[in-house]
Amino acid sequence: xxxxxxxxxxxxxxxxxxxxxxxxxxxxxxxxxxxxxxxxxxxxxxxxxxxxxxxxxxxxxxxxxxxxxxxxxxxxxxxxxxxxxxxxxxxxxxxxxxxxxxxxxxxxxxxxxxxxxxxxxxxxxxxxxxxxxxxxxxxxxxxxxxxxxxxxxxxxxxxxxxxxxxxxxxxxxxxxxxxxxxxxxxxxxxxxxxxxxxxxxxxxxxxxxxxx
Length: 212
Fold this sequence. Notes:
The chain is mostly helical and about 210 residues long. Helix content is about 40%, strand content about 10%. A hairpin with a 5-residue loop joins strand 4 and strand 5 (about 90). Helix 1 (about 45-55) packs across helix 5 (about 145-175). The longest helix has about 30 residues, at about 145-175.
């Protein structure tokens, strides 16, 4: 935060604008930088679903329950069993989509509907297969500890979120001639501006029929 605050050489007043909502920030803006919370442009959809739906990349995986202390980050690379999630009745997070997908198919749902419900573009692979792919990825990037995996995972989230933002902002500019990064602070604000721009003209007559 202090880095964003710049003193105006003439007025010597802090030239920074802040928009805050509850415990979060909608906007932190100085004369040369505009910081936005991208969560406000996601419609409360998870990053995994966003990437699967709108980009050609995917979110990686991390065994959250294995990293409870700083000392845990010195542990060796996580095993398949370390991906069990205590918030989901110890279900293995790597198998989540695979299990739900096959459950939906077993209940009679079509593949197309199951994929749409789970925000997937193609049938998911098993958790074991995902873990083997993770091991190859970690080895390729010379990751040796849980801490290495955590840093790699967080960096991947940032890069993937930027890819989504780039795709999203480009589409909004092409379709509505709006620049979210420069003009907007949230998805609801964008929707309001688009609705205002496309609202009916005052001389447009609207007839309301009431059926009894």
